[in-house]
């Protein structure tokens, strides 16, 4: 099935445009800066391997419940986000990722706002849901500004994070020590479930200008 059947025309708004993954955007994302632990699961350095890049591109175009978008500003890939259209709890946003070189410019808020406005027009009866590890504080500030509220907090086994935690020293784990626990023979992380009711006001401006961010 052609990708056109699954995706809308590019979605414009907030000085950026949301597009499905393509080769040019994959090449750009392969060169994004990386954060490493504990955000390693988002890093896209593996796309520098041409075979991995092709396989991820095929994955991103698979028909099914998920749509994968890249936020592009003046031709430059500045963020990405995916949505599960069929999750029973709501339109489920995931893989919200802005690389370090583009952070602090409200890309996260702006791309989510553009995506959610389109989703509200296309699926007008559904609310939004996402889950986030409790240490991801920058993300939470953006989610709150967009009208998300925490509806539940729970301990969660995040396999990718747990795999890394086994290899990290207590010193390396110190920054997130309050947000993780070792329980019943495995690592768990505290995770928040956020919900946004459709139509809730969205603020896409930063509270703090980017040049003042440390
Ligand atoms: C979380 C993430 C998507 C935020 O992207 P972003 O485009 O920088 O977000 P925004 O510009 O909308 O900023 C969100 C908040 O973080 C703050 N912030 C962003 N970068 C910052 C930095 N380097 N230093 C200090 N504050 C920063 C912003 O000021 C804003 O806070 P405010 O509401 O007080 O103004 C990005 O940092 C990221 O990809 N992190 C790793 C993956 C991740 O955590 N994803 C979310 C998983 S649920």
Description:
The structure is a single chain. With 214 residues, this protein is α+β, with helices and mostly antiparallel strands. It has one domain (3-206): 3-Layer(aba) Sandwich (Aminopeptidase). It is built from seven helices and nine strands. Strands 1, 2, 3, 4, 5, 6, 7, 8 and 9 form a nine-stranded mixed sheet that branches. Strand 5, helix 4 and strand 6 (128-133) form a beta-alpha-beta unit. It is globular, with a radius of gyration of 17 Å. The model has no long low-confidence stretch (mean pLDDT 95). Coenzyme A binds at residues 35, 39, 42, 96-98, 103-109, 132, 136, 138-139, 141-142, 145, 206-208, 213-214.
- The termini sit apart by 46 Å
Total strand segments: 9
Helix content: 25-40%
Morphology: globular
Characteristics:
single chain; 214 residues; alpha+beta; 7 helices; 9 strands; binds coenzyme A
Fold topology:
Blueprint (H helix, E strand, L loop, with lengths): L2 H4 L4 E3 L2 E5 L2 H8 L19 H11 L5 E8 L2 E9 L6 E7 L9 H16 L5 E6 L3 H9 L3 E8 L2 H9 L2 H4 L6 E4 L2 E11 L18
Parallel strand pairs: 5-6
Antiparallel strand pairs: 1-2, 2-3, 3-4, 4-5, 6-9, 7-9, 8-9
Bound molecules: coenzyme A.
Q: Briefly, what is this?
A:
This protein is an alpha+beta fold and 214 residues long. 29% of the residues lie in helices and 29% in strands.
